[in-house]
Write a structure and sequence with these properties.
6-stranded mixed beta sheet; alpha/beta; elongated; single chain
């Protein structure tokens, strides 16, 4: 059986004060085309379909459109709720949708049976394990109050119940949304809890032929080659700039052996970091990549540049963030070396301010004029006293 493993679409995502819906639509066109070209039997979405519990209407419409297109191609869709989704809202219509080949699990339930898909070699059992807090798992599985339960033991409960419904020796796939111990995270991922108590041991998933994970945005293995994160649909933060985004093509053999292949998807606008001085960035050949990408500029000038943001948006119209590491370091060093304000004359303070703002030298004539002004101000102040 061949299927696509994808996750963390975050439909309706707001990034850099911009909704990413059109960017998501663009890349989902590629994903549907990939599913058709690879002749997959199913597309698996391992949680965080939406970016928030109540997504924008445009995001819901986009998901509906993608589901309809996949179903029309005869491709089954299996998806679960992630920590960004509203489990109850995502659970809507699950029985009706199953009749069309769309299988979903929003809320955790102790009695949920696996989804069974058939290929030429027989059945494949998919355990759909939606994201659930320990409190939700305790209620679903009627775990006694005196029994400790954290994210790890809660996942163990879910897996144990799911495995009990899979006949021995059968091929099986787990679909889960969790933070597996040892995983590499990014800033755009919402923490599941604090202090590392959200981490889950990969060993829980070893009985499965393959485990399709969501939550971590970087594609990566998690404890074993057959336990994997597909990563997010797009780059949703600048610390993801170096990551490749796409989907995993998973080939499940008749004996349960699995092979995976990562297929990159080309975004409408890349997310990247550009470093250089203003003079360098203004050179046409300095940055050969598209200037309408979503960029963060690390401006390396040490000197103060007035209206730096406006000057950079003339080069990069989709400038999302600006940092000034060298300028900040220079300012910090200047403050460290500068005498206390009370030890510096008003003339010297004004001269430093003038030169910093204009990038021009304070001339002797200007200094004489300012000295005269300051002397007159001092005389008037004495007369008032």
């Amino acid at each position: 059986m061949r299927f696509l493993h994808t996750a963390d679409w975050h439909l309706g995502k707001l990034f850099g004060q911009r909704y990413m819906t059109e960017d998501q639509r663009y890349v989902l066109e590629e994903l549907v085309a990939l599913a058709v070209d690879e002749d997959v039997q199913a597309v698996v979405i391992a949680g965080d379909v939406y970016d928030r519990a109540v997504p924008p209407a445009e995001a819901v419409a986009l998901f509906d459109e993608v589901l309809a297109r996949l179903v029309k191609k005869g491709i089954a869709v299996l998806y679960i709720a992630g920590n960004h989704d509203s489990a109850a809202r995502l659970d809507f219509g699950r029985e009706l949708l199953a009749a069309s080949g769309v299988y979903l699990r929003g809320c955790v339930r102790g009695e949920d049976a696996p989804v069974v898909l058939e290929d030429a070699a027989g059945p494949v059992y998919f355990s759909l394990l939606p994201f659930a807090t320990p409190v939700e798992v305790r209620a679903a599985f009627q775990v006694p109050r005196e029994e400790p339960l954290d994210f790890d033991t809660a996942m163990a409960r879910q897996v144990q119940a799911a495995r009990a419904q899979i006949p021995g020796g059968c091929r099986s796939v787990a679909v889960a949304h969790a933070f597996l111990a040892g995983g590499r995270s990014a800033s755009s991922e919402r923490p599941l809890s604090v202090g590392g108590t959200d981490q889950v041991r990969p060993a829980h998933f070893l009985p499965y032929s393959y485990t399709a994970l969501g939550h971590l945005h970087g594609p990566q293995r998690a404890g074993a080659e057959k336990i994997r994160y597909a990563g997010s649909l797009l780059k949703y933060s600048f610390d993801e700039a170096a990551q490749k985004k796409g989907a995993l093509v998973v080939e499940l053999a008749a004996d349960g052996a699995v092979e995976t292949r990562f297929e990159a998807l080309a975004p409408r606008h890349d997310v990247r970091i550009v470093r250089g001085t203003l003079e360098e960035l203004r050179q046409a050949d300095f940055d050969p990549l598209p200037h309408d990408d979503y960029v963060r500029v690390d401006l390396l000038d040490r000197a103060t540049i007035l209206n730096a943001y406006d000057k950079l948006t003339a080069i990069y119209p989709n400038l999302f963030a600006l940092t000034r590491p060298n300028w900040q370091a220079a300012q910090a060093e200047e403050l460290r070396l500068r005498p206390q304000a009370g030890e510096v004359s008003e003339l010297a303070l004004f001269r430093d301010f003038y030169e910093e703002m204009t990038r021009e030298t304070f001339s002797p004539d200007q200094q004489k004029y300012l000295e005269a002004v300051l002397e007159e101000m001092a005389r008037e102040e004495r007369e008032e006293v």
